[in-house]
Amino acid sequence: MGIETNRHHILYYKEYWRACKDNSKLMQSMGMIALLDVDTHRELHRACPAPPPLDVFMAQRVLKLYRPDTNPLQGIDNFRFAVEQAIRHPRSHDLERQSAMLAIEAVTLQLPFIREGLVTDYQ
Description:
There is one protein chain. The protein is elongated. Helix 4 (56-65) packs across helix 5 (72-87). It has a two-stranded antiparallel ribbon. The chain has six helices and two strands, in the order βααβαααα. It has helices at 14-17, 21-27, 38-47, 56-65, 72-87, 94-117; strands at 5-9, 33-37. The model has no long low-confidence stretch (mean pLDDT 94). By secondary structure, it is mainly α. 58% of the residues lie in helices and 8% in strands.
């Protein structure tokens, strides 16, 4: 008998992220969903706040910059890099940048849980 697992959307809650088509595409991108053991998945949701969705224009920029990867740990790094690059856009507003930085922080808080509970060959 195998380990009981759940698909974890790194960019959750889906209601937040599906309101904007570019955020929805990011949420469902390869590398932004991790297969986790059930107990670690529950712990993650108890301990970590949901990443705030990106502003519409920030989401467009990030989607263009994000590089999907089959490894969710690399996907998280790629997401953080894409957001950091998008923040530098000359037309990004300070509030967009602040919200995007919160999304990076919220995703980063998930890393120890994802490393611990990831059910793949990437561990």
